[in-house]
Design goal:
Length: 487
């Protein structure tokens, strides 16, 4: 037990070191982009390599600790394990079996793939976005309530988890970098800021609407209150761990527990105004898409900047409400799920969809900051054909992994649940993702498309990946067998 806890303690330190290294690398990449005279390219890359090393060690500690926990769980039931069985249980619990570990693993896989791309093609400008996205993923992981390692349920105790899930996450990482290269291609080929800003504003409005739900249209933002309870520690027999979980209630006439949402005073109007401004900004931008390049003086830019300011105020108020609001009083007559009890408080825990709001905030900030630097960024990019070729090669490397992972997921589902396909939300959106990327490759290989059209498809496909990975897991498409982030 002590050795397992020691591994986990080392893992915490290694994760902090990895985040610090990524933050320093981001500063280096961004400073080089902003001031071309600064010769810090190799320093930024060295920091990224050191951070990936710490990140790799962190994932290794989680993997080994999880394997030892699996062995202890078997021995606690009286099983006598052979050497081969001990080895299998040691490797059978990879570091991506819950939302916390999955986000950390995807960040690692993306950075590893980025360093390979930089080594092969020298595209350090991609490093700014790659490191930023890795930091966003690891920041989102920090919001997850349950970071504990628990023995896998019987359905997950399979060798398929090593192949199916790992391949999908690596393919998602490659698709992310492919979208970054496609976006840079659009910038390099002179795609109007009106197009880029219009799409960015429209996506921001859509994501905020999905997170806020229909109640947001009435000016009400809701989030789940949390309650603190204790669970037995698997590392320290007789000890307990404090866990914050979302409140659930049982609907009349049904035994199904549903996540309870309560209004957060004052936040809804800010988010609603931000959505309205983003929609207006998208409309103004699209109307001006054939006009001259206006940069920061464009009306659309100013409207999006206003939307960003309102969103910032809304986020600040939301954080203030979470920190300062006293115990939450639940509606009268509500039937709580068995075992749940007060006191109930607002908290970041069990409200992982806040990460999508933070993602919208970060993407909008990135657009606002890079628009004045557009010419400088474009001048530092390689030939458009090289960017187009890299985009294609990265995506064509990820698509077979997605395909194999998709097929193996069906085989695993048949083995675990007795059916290959069940139209689970994750299965459905994984199929949509596969079809979209198949469409990209079809337009490139069969139809011979080149230029901005396939690049735009690659960027759109990345939005589908984000929704498949995060939106479905967070329950935005309803509960399912893969909905492991909704609290």
């Amino acid at each position: 037990m002590g050795s397992i806890q020691g591994l986990l303690d080392w893992g915490v330190a290694l994760r902090i070191a990895a985040v610090a290294g990524y933050a320093a690398a981001f500063i280096g990449y961004a400073a080089r982009l902003a001031v071309r005279k600064l010769k810090i390219d190799r320093a930024a890359t060295a920091l990224a390599v050191l951070a990936v090393g710490a990140h790799t060690a962190y994932l290794a500690t989680r993997w080994i600790a999880a394997g030892r926990i699996e062995i202890l769980a078997r021995e606690a039931t009286g099983d006598v394990l052979t050497g081969t069985e001990r080895f299998w249980y040691l490797v059978s619990h990879p570091p991506y079996t819950n939302l916390f570990d999955a986000l950390n693993f995807v960040a690692w896989a993306m950075m590893v793939c980025y360093l390979i791309i930089e080594r092969k093609w020298g595209l350090r400008v991609v490093g700014v976005l790659a490191v930023a996205l890795a930091l966003v993923a690891m920041g989102e992981a920090s919001l997850v309530t349950d970071k504990q390692i628990e023995p896998l349920v019987p359905a997950l105790q399979s060798y398929w988890i090593l192949i199916h899930v790992g391949m999908l996450f690596v393919s998602y990482s490659l698709f992310t970098l492919g979208a970054v290269c496609a976006l840079l291609y659009l910038v390099r080929t002179g795609t109007a800021s009106a197009w880029l800003g219009g799409v960015q504003a429209a996506v921001a409005a859509l994501l905020l609407l999905l997170v806020g739900g229909t109640h947001l249209l009435l000016g009400t933002y809701e989030m789940a209150p949390g309650w603190v309870h204790q669970i037995p520690s698997r590392l320290h027999p007789g000890g307990f761990l404090e866990v914050t979980s979302a409140v659930h209630y049982v609907t009349p006439g049904s035994e199904r527990a549903t996540k309870l949402l309560v209004p957060v005073a004052g936040v809804g109007p800010f988010l609603l105004v931000a959505i309205a401004l983003f929609i207006a900004g998208a409309f103004v931008y699209f109307r001006a898409r054939k006009g001259p390049e206006q940069g920061v003086s464009a009306p659309g830019y100013k409207i999006v900047a206003a939307g960003f300011a309102v969103l910032t105020l809304g986020l600040a108020l939301l954080v203030y409400r979470i920190v300062s609001t006293p115990d939450v009083m639940l509606p009268q007559g509500i039937r709580l799920a068995p075992g749940e009890h007060g006191p109930f408080r607002l908290s970041l825990a069990s409200n992982y969809a806040l990460g999508l709001i933070a993602l919208v905030w970060g993407l909008t900030l990135g657009f606002l900051v890079t628009t004045p630097l557009r010419d400088r960024i474009s001048a530092g990019l390689p030939d458009p054909r090289k960017l187009e070729d890299i985009t294609y090669k990265v995506i064509i490397a990820g698509w077979p992994l997605l395909t194999i992972g998709f097929i193996m997921g069906g085989m695993w589902a048949n083995e675990a649940w007795g059916r290959f396909w069940g139209w689970d939300p994750k299965e459905t959106w994984a199929l949509i993702t596969w079809v979209v990327y198949a469409g990209y490759l079809h337009t490139r290989i069969t139809l011979g498309w080149a230029g901005k059209r396939p690049a735009a498809i690659a960027v759109f496909a990345f939005a589908v990946v984000v929704f498949t990975f995060m939106g479905v897991n967070l329950g935005l498409t309803g509960e399912g067998l893969h909905t492991y982030g909704a609290g």
